[in-house]
Amino acid sequence: MRVSVVIPAFNEEKLLPLTLAAVARASVAFAARGWAHEVVVCDNNSTDRTAEVARAAGATVVFEPVNQIGRARDAGARVATGDWFIFVDADSLPSAELFADIADHIASGRCLGGGSTVQLEPGTPFFARFFCGCWNLVSRVARWAAGSCVWVEASAFRAAGGFGTEFYAGEEVFLSRRLHRIARERRLRFRVLAAHPLATSSRKLKLYTFTESVRFFGRMFLSAGRAAKDPQACHLWYDGRR
């Protein structure tokens, strides 16, 4: 068994070292099973030292010139050699317990893939933690994986067409829906794990005002997701603020 951890990264030289170190520690869960693993970082047209930082940590680096997180994840997956992919964002810190939980579900032979609930870093304001809790509830009920942690069997990911290029935000929800159909066809499960939430950064709360955040999510809600196809509407992901 071989697992590929794929990390999309746009101007992430500040937080990427912490993520890569966390992935290295968490990957002992695979070594304990005798599984091989690799780390693939997609440099998504960065203008900082993202690629250099990734190579220094021993990761395979691939370049994607178009700033779009779905493209970046797919570019990483194209060079990944694992039987299973785990997509982790460059500002997230997976634990050994989370990777062990994923490995248990892979080894069970009953799952095609899934996601994980998320937990914002300490000191995050209450309102943000409240909305994160709401997302976790929706994620578990609807079985929608958060983009910060998607684990999936490689052939199923390819059969689903990857994340694709249609959306600039929320692409993981549409991928989850496609994977649900494949899971039903194969009589397998798609699970969102909750025992060991993925620790992730709340930096956007520091970089953007409350009004900017409300305007963004309001636009997504009122447009029924159509705004997710507009890169200008998704500036919170692509304007380069770090």
Concise description?
The protein has 242 residues and is α/β, with parallel strands linked by helices. 44% of the residues lie in helices and 22% in strands. It has an 8-stranded mixed beta sheet, with helices on both faces.
State the oligomer: single chain
CATH third-tier fold name: Spore Coat Polysaccharide Biosynthesis Protein SpsA, Chain A
Order of helices and strands: EHHEHEHEEHEHEHHEHHH
What is the number of helices?
11
Can you give the mean pLDDT? 92
CATH class call: Alpha Beta
Structural class: alpha/beta
Describe what this molecule looks like in 3D.
It is a single chain. The chain is an alpha/beta fold and 242 residues long. The protein has one domain: Spore Coat Polysaccharide Biosynthesis Protein SpsA, Chain A. It is 44% helix and 22% strand. It has an eight-stranded mixed beta sheet with strand order 3-2-1-4-7-6-8-5, with helices on both faces. Helix 1 crosses helix 5. The model has no long low-confidence stretch (mean pLDDT 92).
